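Per your request, structure below.
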């Protein structure tokens, strides 16, 4: 795994239905994301925060809230993530709401196209984020990034990475899903995304789920992880805008992260939707950082290195 890591803060909640995810990057820094990764032997550079328009907090216009602001933030994220990948570094996007997954993953896809790499995206989330302006109940664009990446959405958003669609639905595996809107469900099925929802994880277990989700990786694969903190069960990670009960337990989530680390293929990461305004003494930020450490190979039990 690339151990030269760049932290990129994207302090905005323009795509969300609650204010507060704009404070996520700083809460992750307060929880010592940089120093703790540094202690694991990673070379960490904190690039500070991107800038963009303020959140005007307006109702939807033609199906979207804050379209222009979302576009501006995603363009900034796209350029920042792309620049880190081009200089051979591992970008970690500190969100910010999940609409920015569009800017981040479109940059990763562009990099992979140019470098001849195969792309796989693991979308860890309580929600499928596969809405469009036609079916969205709220107009909040943080419910739409996966659809936009797959080419379903407004032209300026879907073509951010210069190639439409930015990713094939076949490259995306969703894990932990437990809240999907009715129209979204149909569109997900039609597009052919592989979704490992909570029912699947309940029945088959996290280990089997991750074995399948990671089965097609090879030496030429760039694995991107888009970690929405609401993936975690809110009993131990309450600091998000859209909590949904019945998520992975702490141990299940750790296993998920450790199995990703074991592949050695993760090459970029988003940590999204942390909302300090809804958190309790920064506990969710600390849990999120704990999970990120596991993604980089920190295991709970001390294990001997394989011979
Ligand atoms: Mn999400």
């Amino acid at each position: 795994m690339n151990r030269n890591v760049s932290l990129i803060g994207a302090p905005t909640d323009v795509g969300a239905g609650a204010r507060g995810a704009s404070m996520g990057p700083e809460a992750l820094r307060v929880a010592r994301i940089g120093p703790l990764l540094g202690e694991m032997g990673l070379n960490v550079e904190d690039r500070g925060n991107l800038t963009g328009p303020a959140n005007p907090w307006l109702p939807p216009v033609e199906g979207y809230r804050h379209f222009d602001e979302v576009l501006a933030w995603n363009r900034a994220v796209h350029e920042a993530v792309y620049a880190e990948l081009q200089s051979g570094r591992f970008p970690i996007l500190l969100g910010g709401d999940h609409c920015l997954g569009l800017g981040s993953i479109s940059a990763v896809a562009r990099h992979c196209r140019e470098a001849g790499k195969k792309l796989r995206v693991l979308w860890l989330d309580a929600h499928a984020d596969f809405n469009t302006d036609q079916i969205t109940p709220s107009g909040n664009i943080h419910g739409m990034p996966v659809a936009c990446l797959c080419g379903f959405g407004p032209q300026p958003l879907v073509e951010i990475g210069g190639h439409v669609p930015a990713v094939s639905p076949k490259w995306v595996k969703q894990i932990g899903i437990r809240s999907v809107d009715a129209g979204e469900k149909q569109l997900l099925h039609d597009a052919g995304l592989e979704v490992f929802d909570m029912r699947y994880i309940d029945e088959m277990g996290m280990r089997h789920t991750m074995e399948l989700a990671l089965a097609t990786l090879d030496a030429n694969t760039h694995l991107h992880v888009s970690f929405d903190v609401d993936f975690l069960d809110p009993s131990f990670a309450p600091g998000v805008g859209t909590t949904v009960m019945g998520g992975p337990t702490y141990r299940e989530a750790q296993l998920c992260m450790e199995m990703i680390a074991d592949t050695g293929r993760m090459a970029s990461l988003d940590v999204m939707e942390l909302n300090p305004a809804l958190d309790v003494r920064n506990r969710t930020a600390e849990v999120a950082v704990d999970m990120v450490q596991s993604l980089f190979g920190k295991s709970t039990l001390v294990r001997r290195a394989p011979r």
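Strands lie at 4-10, 43-49, 90-95, 118-124, 172-177, 194-197, 221-228, 266-272.

Regards,
D.
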